[in-house]
Specification:
The complex is a heterodimer. In chain A, about 70% of the residues lie in helices and about 0% in strands. Chain A folds into two domains: about 170 residues, no CATH class; about 210 residues, Orthogonal Bundle (MetI-like fold). Chain A has 19 helices and two strands. By secondary structure, chain B is mostly helical. Chain B has two domains: about 160 residues, no CATH class; about 210 residues, MetI-like (MetI-like fold), CATH 1.10.3720.10. Chain B is about 70% helix and about 0% strand. Chain B is flat. The chains are: A mainly alpha, B mainly alpha. The interface between A and B is large, with 66 and 69 residues.
């Protein structure tokens, strides 16, 4: 058994085993195909737009005849294969793969052509050719070209070609250009609007630059029942409370979400995946949307905003914390463990001392983000300064809006500065 | 410590003023938030002036004086000065009393706030209590438990008062949270049964949102990359370039402090609601953020290659091309990916204030309590944000 493995490893020196790069290999191919497909789609879109002057609803209503779709699919596939055979394609570059001959030389044109032809053998029967082979895929064995991880820079004999001389460089450029062009249309960019409607914005700017600072301390009557300064303090406290409670809850959860702490039985890994899933799900929905849900739950006001911020903070801090806990030095952990310490003792004496400074830094950083978010969360009913901002915006009272925006900017700036300085000292 | 020159004496004075400022700020905070704490607890209203507002002056003046004379105040710990007598021992009670009385002269400017050539201030000369760095004079002692130190008690009071006031102000209550939990039943029920017929529209909006983030990031990079060279301190030496540096720094820190959502409000009025307004808002915020990140990277480059290219006769452009660009390319790409990630995240919610994209539709569904439709959009957002987050962090890890 051991001999066999060793033998395989020695052979692997010459022709790397399939399984080692199977995922990277397939993923890089899919990236290539998707990118070429996206480019083809963009070209058709722009052709429709400019040539036939059809306003394309860019999703689903591209008119291709029935025979057009197979051609589009096969065409993009062939182009992707050509990119892979005759250069370093984008997908290969992203996943760090390159093609070489068995002697680690640049393949000749003839070999590349053979590789291109043989790739159909591997890919057309739904990738069966990749798995059936014992050592390397069939198209590699037929052509003598291998896909290997890109070696480090100093192992290269030649200087790397400039980006415009490589397939992946050209693809990346075209991809970038296509994306910008498409976005330009899809987001309805119109510079005419931006410049032509500037007079509409003029009164906003006039208000922003002539802020009514007397408005800061004045108490406003019924619908507001607060002063701007009071609302600002309320906002700060919302962020503070959300950060403190969020951090307190995220702290124990982070250990349950750290792979190295939870490694062991299936149940532990199950808990790990549940906690990680919780972090990922709740992190990807911004707190402003949670605020709307909590506004239904506990009623409009600063409490809803605080809860929303807290939920997002738990998820975001939990993820940052647990990644930090995964990157600790294993030395002290092993020391406590080998001295007979239990799991809790290991966490208490080996993990926690290592993670305290980075945890503090993350918490401060999160507090800063929470203050930022707290100022806008009130737009949807979270209480705090944003409520006043929206109110005065509706009243078209730009001088007061200006005062509020400047007040928010000053507070955020000060916090940004202070938290940056403190974090520098901690880490 | 003998023979301090004027600069050292001035530095010492600044340190002392900073120390007093910290203590004053802490106690004033304790006063006002404490007022709020008691008004919330006793009267269920938030008032920072439950006690007469002038009360803060005697409270702070007495508090700081006593704290700095009889204990180790927060400011003292922060600047690393402890009070001790000439031999480096703890001062006697009498010395501390004299110090406390004469300290008022220092703080109110009745006695000239000047230290002598050995760094001693008038009240220290009078009382024999010195503020010194303890490790220079005294053997380290076992620190007391936190609840036996003045700082620990003040910090504890600050935390209690802050949390109490914060809970009062934000009207936080676990009772509401649990009693009203039934109100969200509809939401959770419908959240798990998303409206599949909305999938197509949702996907379309999602791609629109994605492209919004894309163009904002792409255009922001094109603007921010060249401007970052003007905003790097180490590259702006002359008076004119220093002026440009200061100008750019001030403008971008102002732009950055205003959140993208507030920018979206402004642009929604300017160019009309829609994805363009959202893209502009993200663009403005990204430009400011990227210039800051980029220029900080530029400030920390290795000067070696720059000098090497310059000494072999390279002109400014060649210095940038061969001395600077190879050093910053990877960090720049990494920051751009990071910003792209943030922009996609922000693009999903910028619609709430009229920035277009998926956020606007989601917002209106949530407002109308149509949670099945909202659920579809939320799931799509989740997938997009998670995927972008994953891709961006993987690529950034490779660039590091």
């Amino acid at each position: 058994m051991v001999d066999k493995r060793r033998q395989r490893d020695e052979e692997g020196e010459k022709s790397p085993r399939v399984s080692r790069f199977l995922v990277r290999r397939i993923a890089s191919f899919w990236i290539d195909w998707l990118i070429i497909g996206f480019l083809a789609y963009g070209i058709v879109y722009l052709l429709n737009y400019y040539w036939y002057t059809v306003s394309v609803d860019w999703f689903g209503t591209l008119t291709l005849p029935p025979w057009g779709w197979p051609i589009a699919v096969v065409g993009t596939l062939e182009i992707a294969l050509l990119c892979r055979a005759f250069g370093h394609s984008f997908g290969m570059r992203v996943l760090g793969l390159m093609t070489v001959t068995g002697d680690r030389d640049r393949p000749s044109m003839k070999e590349r052509l053979r590789y291109y032809g043989a790739m159909h053998v591997a890919i057309v029967p739904a990738g069966v050719g990749v798995w059936l082979s014992p050592r390397s895929p069939w198209h590699e064995r037929l052509s003598g070209i291998h896909l290997i991880p890109i070696p480090r820079r100093d192992e290269w004999s030649d200087p790397p070609p400039p980006w415009y001389g490589t397939v992946w460089g050209i693809t990346a450029f075209v991809l970038f250009a296509m994306t910008v062009t498409l976005s330009w249309h899809i987001t309805d960019v119109s510079l005419k609007n931006l410049i032509g409607e500037a007079d509409k914005a003029a009164r906003i700017w006039k208000g922003l630059f002539n802020p009514n600072f007397d408005a800061l301390v004045a108490d406003y009557p019924a619908p507001i029942n607060d002063s701007i300064l009071g609302a600002l303090v309320e906002t700060l406290f919302m962020a503070l409370l959300a950060t403190i409670f969020g951090a307190v809850i995220a702290f124990p959860l982070s250990f349950l979400g750290a792979r190295n702490v939870m490694r062991g039985t299936k149940i532990r890994m199950g808990v790990f995946w549940i906690i990680r899933g919780f972090f990922n799900v709740f992190r990807s929905i911004e707190s402003i949307l949670w605020a709307m849900i909590f506004a239904i739950w506990v009623g409009w006001g600063p409490y809803a905003g605080t809860l929303a911020l807290m939920l997002h903070t738990i998820a975001a801090l939990g993820k940052l914390y647990s990644e930090q806990a995964e990157h600790i030095d294993p030395g002290p952990v092993e020391a406590i463990y080998s001295a007979g310490g239990g799991r809790i003792q290991t966490i208490r004496h080996a993990v926690i001392p290592q993670v305290i400074p980075p945890y503090l830094a993350f918490t401060l950083y999160r507090w800063e983000i929470n203050v930022r978010m707290a100022t806008v969360i009130s737009l949807v009913g979270g209480g705090g300064i944003g409520r006043l901002l929206f109110y005065f915006k509706r009243e078209l009272d730009w001088a007061r809006v200006g005062a509020i925006v400047i007040a928010i900017a000053v507070v955020v700036w000060v916090l940004d500065y202070v938290s940056g300085r403190v974090r520098e000292r901690i880490v | 410590m003998d023979g301090l020159d004027l600069r050292d004496r001035a530095n010492e004075l600044v340190l002392r003023l900073f120390m007093i400022f910290v203590d004053v700020a802490l106690l004033a905070y304790l006063w006002f938030v404490g007022n709020c704490f008691f008004s919330v607890i006793l009267y269920h209203t938030e008032s920072y002036t439950l006690a007469p507002i002038w009360g803060v002056i005697p409270f702070v003046a007495l508090g700081v004086g006593l704290w700095e004379s009889f204990g180790k105040s927060a400011g003292m710990r922060l600047i690393g000065r402890y009070s001790m007598n000439e031999r480096g021992e703890a001062p006697t009670l009498g010395q501390r009393l004299v110090h406390w009385v004469t300290w008022h002269g220092f703080i109110f400017g009745l006695v000239t706030a000047m230290n002598d050539a050995r760094g001693r201030f008038p009240q220290e000369l009078a009382s024999g209590v010195w503020y010194r760095e303890p490790h220079l004079y005294a053997a380290p002692k076992v620190p007391r438990r936190w609840y036996r130190t003045s700082l620990g008690l003040v910090a504890f009071a600050t935390v209690v008062v802050t949390l109490g006031a914060a809970i009062g102000i934000t009207e936080a209550s676990l009772v509401t949270l649990f009693v009203n939990a039934g109100k969200t039943g509809k939401f959770w029920r419908e959240l798990v049964s998303p409206d599949a017929s909305l999938f197509g529209l949702g996907l379309k909006l999602l791609v629109e949102t994605f492209f919004m983030a894309m163009i904002a990031t792409a255009c922001a990079v094109l603007v921010a990359a060249p401007l970052s060279f003007l905003a790097a301190r180490n590259l702006s030496r002359g008076p004119v370039s220093r002026l440009i540096y200061t100008l750019i720094r001030v403008v971008i820190s102002a732009m950055r402090s205003v959140d993208a959502i507030i920018w979206a409000i402004i642009f929604a009025l300017w160019v009309g609601m829609g994805t363009f307004a959202g893209a502009l808002a993200l663009f403005i915020h990204s430009v400011a953020d990227l210039i800051k990140l980029y220029s900080e990277q530029l400030e920390s480059i290795d000067q070696g290659p720059v000098e090497a290219v310059a000494s072999t006769g390279g002109n400014a452009l060649q210095v940038i091309r061969y001395g600077i660009v190879p050093q910053i390319l990877n960090p720049y790409l990494s920051f751009t990916l990071y910003r792209w990630d943030i922009n996609v995240r922000m693009a999903t919610i910028i619609g709430v204030v009229g920035g277009g994209g998926i956020g606007w539709r989601l917002f209106s569904y949530l407002k109308a309590w149509q949670f099945r439709q909202a659920s579809t959009l939320m799931i799509l957002i989740m997938i997009l944000v998670w995927a972008i987050d994953y891709i961006s962090s993987r690529l950034r890890a490779r660039l590091m």
